[in-house]
Amino acid sequence: MPPASALSQATSSVTRLLKDLDSYDEELADQKSSLEKLQADTSTGAEGDDDETGNREYLVKQQAQAMKETQAVFKPLLERLGVASGKLEHELSSPDADAAEVEKAKEALAVAVQKQTSSTRDGV
């Protein structure tokens, strides 16, 4: 099997970073939902003794910290996506690229540009 072309490698890099971005988006949404549930349980004074209330407050703090750590991932991930997108644009200018590879690359690049310009994540 012949080695992958530079265009194919650049497309794969962008696609992988887009999957990572989607994964972190999903993780952040799950964490936010979990945090809201914990906060609701804590603020409604769900029945239990002081130990349980203290534990819930601790869990709220831990979940908030996990969200901060996930949010911190987005800026460097978007920067890497920008670099990979630039490399992909450069490789698209190569005249010896296969038409199918070019189409996949253009699709990946369009999604990457859309994700970079529509980023509404906190801390980005």
UniProtKB/TrEMBL annotation:
Supercomplex made of cofactors A to E. Cofactors A and D function by capturing and stabilizing tubulin in a quasi-native conformation. Cofactor E binds to the cofactor D-tubulin complex; interaction with cofactor C then causes the release of tubulin polypeptides that are committed to the native state. It is found in: Cytoplasm, Cytoskeleton. The keyword Chaperone applies. This is Tubulin-specific chaperone A. GO terms for molecular function: beta-tubulin binding. Pfam families: TBCA. Its main location: cytoplasm. Belongs to the TBCA family. GO terms for biological process: post-chaperonin tubulin folding pathway; tubulin complex assembly. Transmembrane segments: none annotated.
